[in-house]
Structures are given as structure tokens and as C-alpha cells.
Amino acid sequence: TTIFPIDKKYLYDYFGSLDNQSNKEFDIIVVNDGYENFEEVKCNFSKLNIIELKFSSSISKNRECGIHYILDNHYDVVVFGDSDDYFSSNRVEKCIELLNKYEIVVNDFSLFNENGVYSEKYISNRLVNRNRITIDMIKKKNFFGLSNTAVKAKLLQDTSFDDGLVAVDWYLYSKLLLDNRSSVFTNETLTYYRQYSQNTVGIGDVTKDAIKRGLEVKLMHYKLLSNSDESYNNLYSEIKKLKSQLVTEDDFDQYLSELKRSEIEFPLWWEEV
């Protein structure tokens, strides 16, 4: 995981869920980007083997730092998590079980906010348990996050992210699926995905700001992946054309109205663009 200056309660939720895992045979690699007094948190969870790396850079380079540490220290399996989320008690156990058969595991998530959980097993509204995942399923949308995925560490060799990359998760798993790596979806374990204002990206709430941000994310994503697969050139051109058509606030209002009429049920990341 990575941590940054956030509410201490979020970290207690996160590490508390790791303290309650049914399989406790793991280390926790933490890239600390500016969270002060982390020693206090570590002392409160002294039974966990927490390894802190102090590193301060962009979203993408912080993740790259953690991945390089994992590779340098010869770990076999990586279970990713965001430090403002928390997990069901069988997450590590279920991920390891499925990674004996597949190379990548993506698990379901439930949405919650300060009032509690309000949407259970969100991805299951779109996918069936034990679905095999292909690259075509995530070309125009994403459900692979760095809080609901696990992967065999050897797949991460030579991982490098552009410094300005926001959708690190989408890019990473797109590259792996383009290499025909085997991937499976499971709803037999859960990530509890916190919805709040500091989220890099939320889900399910389509706004003008979300559309504007999605345009920029997709432009970079498609441009970078066009180096690996020529089909992304067409996707890049489509989004570039859409961006040129959305100039004024009225343009965005009209686009938003059309989206709401199309009624995408349970939209996934970046699907609104």
C-alpha cells in the first residue's frame, strides 16, 4: 500500500482488517508519502510485520517504488490495497488460493461512506463469480484497482510507470492482459471501498468534473497503450475527437444529460466517457 496525510481512523480501519486476516503469513509493504507519526500506528498493530519505505513522489512513482521493493526482496505474491479502504477477513487466503490456478485475481468491492456500507458486491452487478477476464472487457472501462487485486510477483518484472499516470491500476493490468496473462474475478472475498472527497477517483457518481477528468485519464491511457497494441490508436482518436466537441459548459451539460438518458447501470471506472 501507499499512505499519505489522511484521517488516522482510515489507517486503523485498514490495518485492523489486516490484523483480522484468516491467513496471517504476510508482510505489509508501506510506501509512506508524508504521513507523520506512523510509528504510533505501527505500535498499535505490533503483531503485523509492517515494513515502511519513506518515499515521496507522484501516485505512479510511489506505486513503482513499492513494486521494486517487492521484486528486489523476492516475494511470490502481491496483494494490493489502498490504505483508506479495508478488507474482508479472508482476502489474503482467497487471493492466494486462486493464484494457485490463475496469475491475476480481481475481487469484488462494496461501497461505503461515513454512514456505512450502501452498495454490496458492486462488481457482481456486472460480472459472475469466477468469470475469466480478457483485455476486451477493460478496454473502455476498468474494474481492476490497486485495492481489489492480487498478482504473482514475477509478472511485475520491468514495471515502470509514466510520472503523470493517474490510472496506474488500469494501465498495469491492461499491459498484463495484453500479454495474455490469466485473470479471474471473485466475489468470495471483498474490498470495502471508501467513497469520500479525497479519493483519487470514486465510482458510480457521474458529474461534469468526472467527465473532464475521465477525458484526460483516457487520453493518456490510450496513448501509452498504443505503443503495445495498435487497437488503442483508434480509441485514442475517439476520445481526442470527443474532447474537441466538449468545450463549453453547455456542451458538458448536454453530454451529461445524454449519459443519464442512456442509463448505464452500475458504471465502472472511466465508463462515463
Could you describe the 3D structure shown?
The protein is α/β, with parallel strands linked by helices and 273 residues long. It has helices at residues 8-19, 38-44, 59-72, 91-99, 168-178, 208-225, 231-245, 249-262; strands at residues 2-3, 27-32, 49-54, 77-79, 86-87, 104-113, 116-119, 149-152, 183-194. Strands 4, 5, 6, 7, 8 and 9 form a six-stranded mixed β-sheet that branches. Helix 6 runs antiparallel to helix 7 (231-245). The protein starts with a strand and ends in an 11-residue tail after the last helix. The mean pLDDT is 95.
Count of helices?
8
| Distance, first to last CA | 28 Å
Mean pLDDT: 95
Tell me the quaternary state. single chain
Total beta-strand segments: 9
Shape: globular
Order of secondary-structure elements = EHEHEHEEHEEEHEHHH
Q: Specify the helix fraction band.
A: 25-40%
Largest sheet: 6 strands, mixed
Percent of residues in beta strands: 15-25%
Structural class designation: alpha/beta
